[in-house]
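Journal club side-thread
Mid-discussion, someone asked how the predicted structure for our own chain would compare to the paper's figures. Pasting it here so we can look after the session.
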Amino acid sequence: MTRFPPPPDGTHPPLDFAGYRSTTLRAPSQPPVVLPHRLTEVTGPLLGADRIGPTDHDLTSQHTGEPIGQRIVVSGRVLDSDGRPVPDTLVEVWQANAAGRYAHARDNWPAPLDPNFTGGGRVMTDSAGTYSFTTIRPGAYPWGNHHNAWRPAHIHFSLFGTSFTQRLVTQMYFPDDPLFGQDPIFNSVPDAAARQRMVSRFDLDATRAEWALAFTWDIVLRGREQTPFEEPHDD
């Protein structure tokens, strides 16, 4: 089994971060119990392109009408520590709509739902490790963590290996968001350089004329340039 050096200190957020109040209750208080990987955990279910629907990559075409908001293309590559592409990886996204509301029963703050946008998509990386989604730029939303708390606009990303036990979760942000300074989730990543690796860049060359703006964001699985994930992993 290949062993990789641990990421530099400050790459991943701690499981219990004082500024992020809900981690106080959900962060583990005991050391992890290591369970053996049996056949089910290692081999199944199989994740392949045959599980991807024709509109899964385009969150703007999953309903009968056009969603409201600024259409964007988010694309990038999934890479390993040596900059090599990671092909055939399932990438999932979920996000709020342009008004900052999720299509979820527990999200009931007074912002409009969009009947033509449910905010979920998935795609497999190609041989060059590339993924691409067409979606709507999400809005900010209040979340009750502290007085007048608002989340910066973001898209949740989930990456799978060969099975559901091999899952990494992170968030992608947009450049120059004025809410960065007061968001404890973004700032739970200790290292400032690692935080910036969660921020996409506007990509004029990738825009689609008279159709959509574009943002580029690469996801690095290991090494000094590793993308911060929601919990540390030893590979």
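Post-session note: The chain is about 10% helix and 20% strand.
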